[in-house]
Amino acid sequence: MEFRLTDAHLECLEKGDWQIVGGWIRVVARTRRNTRKHGFGALIQWRNMDSVLLQDIVFNRVLHGDQSRQVRDALIDSGYWLEPYPQSWPRLQRYLLQEIVKAPAGICVDTTGWHDGVYVTQDWSVGTNSEPYYYAGQLNDSMLKSAGTSAQWQSQVGALCIGNPLMVFVVGVALSAPLLHPAAVENGIFHLVGPSSSGKTSLLELAASVYSDRSCVRSWISTANGLAAVAAEQHDMLLALDEIGLARPEDVDIAVYHIVAGTSKLRATESGALARPSHWRTLALSSGEVWLSEVFESLGKRPKAGQQIRLVEIPVFGRFGTFDALHRFQRPQLFVDHLKLQTSRYHGSLFPEWMNLLTSTDELAHYAKSEIQRLVDQWRTSNMSSQVIRVLQRFALVATALSLASRNYLVPWDEEESIDSVKQVWLQWLAARGHVMNAEEHQVLARLKVLLPKWEKALSPIGQQNTASLLGYIRDVNGERQWLIDKSQFLRQLDMPGQYMREIMPLLQRGWLTTNEPERATLKLMVQGKSRRFFALWPERIYAGMQELEIDD
Fold first, then answer.
1. What is the pTM of this model?
2. Is CATH 3.40.50 the right assignment for the domain spanning 150-265+277-433?
């Protein structure tokens, strides 16, 4: 059967006459998975009755099979005009199958983000590869919406960020999300904490304007059950989450776990087999009036050290809530109102230019990693723990993204302001944390500082005690005082877990504890004819060390 495509219709030749099959439709590419072994189909484009250009990937297995009418129904539902005759759909079906064979080849992918050096969105892809890449998504609205030019975004939105470190920082977080993969940085969350009406939501909308309009900002409530779908849809993009206080603590707990883990929970199919889980890379920007640690405490949980590394909680700061410079506006609210108006007018134009820059940057992975390391080396101090340095790497990632954007004139402020803004936010986080130690170590030392005066009063010299001491003893070893604290009492009073070696290790490493049982970190002694286990502390060393470390209770 012979077909021809006019500006308005698809026609077929039947008994010498050209008959209309339906509206304008064509096969753009013959698609398949990057293995080239399965997932064969076609990227088709069509115009609906309002002349809106639409596209989607249709798989051969559906177009050939018993479910082919699903394709027909989806097309009609989107507004495609199909002539109301029984032969119209079989003709269109045959046309598509014929065109697939002739179309140029391409690769289809199920997720947005990086694929073999190509960055794919629902609407476009950028990067170099032997073949074009296409998103095999469903017929749905793209999250990426654009209004105005990048020059307008710079002059009307970006210019307002100058002199406002937190505003510059959140733009950097938005730009950083696609850098997670090249820089080999894990998923993470930056959580902005501050009082009501301080401008936190405006910061999220500003970050979202890099990609789209304010619909890109999700609520913690809306993501409680649909997080996997939301995060997977925004793979290698920013995930903006507003007002954590509105969500149930249980939902926040689950959501945080999924965000940082980057995978959905295991589910069973109708047949009982395991469904394929969703995966994502994302950098989340969150806001709320409560700290995430408070949310965990309400559930009777403490955030684990690994979570605290990837959950970076930042107290908002600024002369006017989250802002330092109001530019020409007399009151903060007027500035916020103007910012909201401008982000609604100008958004989504920066992201395509940013991805064009990233995909054209030579050895992007090497560049990102080396710049991050350079900034880490510049900002770190000699006493910083490994956990703090890992958080510092996240801030350095944001600074790297902003510096690259500044150097290439994608933002209206210079590189110095990019770096200084991130450094100010980093120092605010560090001040809020209050120390540069690993979380487990600080927790143990802070508790130990409280207990030391109590223990000193309760311990007795080991040689003068006729009855067994529940807590422990004092003794002299080579002219230095040593405290022998009963193992069970020590663990209970310090609220340590049964597997305690990770918490005890800092004491051993600092030489504050001695042992004759390295696998237990305990000292085994005979006391009054009975074998007992103690934690053997050197109190003078501990007092001096705590003073040096400035341990707070």
1. 0.81
2. yes
